TrEMBL record:
It comes from the Bacteria. It holds the Pfam family 2-Hacid_dh. Residues 109-287 form the D-isomer specific 2-hydroxyacid dehydrogenase NAD-binding domain. It comes from Cyclobacterium jeungdonense. Signal peptide: none annotated. This is D-glycerate dehydrogenase. Belongs to the D-isomer specific 2-hydroxyacid dehydrogenase family. Gene3D superfamilies: NAD(P)-binding Rossmann-like Domain (3.40.50.720).
Length: 320
């Protein structure tokens, strides 16, 4: 049995495969593989551990229908044609739960960085202008006691709600298809319409999966419904917001600030105006990028792989 791994993963993953007596090939080079190259590698292997491989579409699963399992090294599986994998009888697994805290921390980091204008101050020092010379200069905004609107109160949104209620006594509004009674009980979270959430929140943080329904969900129309003092934070998928309209909203002062861990497209162009704005903070999709979390994700991916190779049910399955 041989596993193909398309990017370098934490060492624990190789150890687990070796202990199980499974051979593997790792693509360690840059540039990362394109879809055609990934297919060629997969053809010589029984399983595929895929860290963000683009193009896992119906044709991929048809050409690679010999695969016993595709183990995604991510929780998200937008861009992966799960129906096509299922049709070919290929189990697909992901890495749920283990990245909830790290991703919620990333949302919090964006909130704090934007709220306290951290990059503005850092850049000022770099330009030789240490400190605030006037008491009215370079001021941020408090988060404590403010209202956080969570769009998609699932596992990651719930972690963020816990952090923000425990540490800052923030009020939680949420917009979800389903009611979340646990969060209502634990954090006093209140389910509201999207319009109410936009109108009443001081921070809007997005945690939805990317689906046909959520694609382009945040554009000028929604930004205009937010308070001019509000922050927009997205750690889910870049295609959930319309980037041009976000840029315009920030430039026109319709929004106070934005923090993004996800952009559309990724990677973001170094010419993107958001990178020069004092009220925007951009991270390169690092939501799960801590040593502990990446190791935990690797464990999930390898557990899925080993189960798939044995023809057993995956511990973290995605196919229905
Ligand atoms: C995930 O696991 O889906 C993260 O967004 C990394 O892609």
């Amino acid at each position: 049995m041989k596993v193909f791994i398309n990017k370098v993963i934490p060492a624990v993953g190789y150890q687990m495969l070796e202990e199980a007596g499974v051979d593997y090939t790792v693509w360690k080079e840059r540039p990362i593989l394109d879809r055609g190259q990934a297919i060629q590698f997969c053809k010589g292997h029984d399983a595929f551990i895929s860290a963000g491989q683009a193009g896992l579409d119906a044709d991929f699963f048809h050409q690679c229908r010999h695969l016993k399992v595709v183990a995604l090294h991510s929780v998200g599986f937008d861009g992966v044609d799960i129906a096509a994998a299922t049709e070919q009888g290929i189990p697909v697994g992901n890495t749920p739960n283990v990245l909830n805290k790290a991703t919620a921390e990333t949302a919090l980091l964006l909130m704090l960085t934007v709220a306290r204008r951290a990059l503005y101050h850092h850049k000022k020092i770099k330009k030789g202008n240490w400190g605030i010379s006037q008491p009215t200069e370079g001021l941020g905004i408090d988060l404590a006691g403010k209202t956080l609107g969570i769009v998609g109160l699932g596992r990651i949104g719930t972690e963020l709600a816990a952090m923000c209620t425990q540490s800052w006594n923030m009020k939680i509004l949420y917009h979800n298809r389903n009611t979340n009674p646990e969060a209502e009980q634990a954090f006093g979270a209140k389910k509201v319409s999207l319009d109410t959430l936009l109108a009443q929140s001081d921070v809007v943080s997005v945690h939805t999966a990317l689906t046909d329904e959520t694609k382009g969900m945040f554009g000028m129309e929604q930004f205009k419904k937010m308070k001019p003092t509000a922050l927009f934070v997205n750690t889910s998928r870049g295609a959930v917001h319309k980037e041009d309209e976000l840029i315009a909203a920030l430039q026109k002062g319709i929004l106070w600030g934005a923090g993004l861990d996800v952009t559309n497209p990724e990677p973001m162009s170094p010419e993107n105006p958001l990178l020069d704005m004092d009220n925007a903070v951009i991270f390169p999709h690092i939501g799960s990028a801590t040593q502990e979390t990446r190791e935990a994700m690797t464990r999930c991916a390898v557990e899925n792989t080993l189960a798939g190779l044995k023809g057993e049910k995956l511990p973290y399955p995605v196919n229905p």
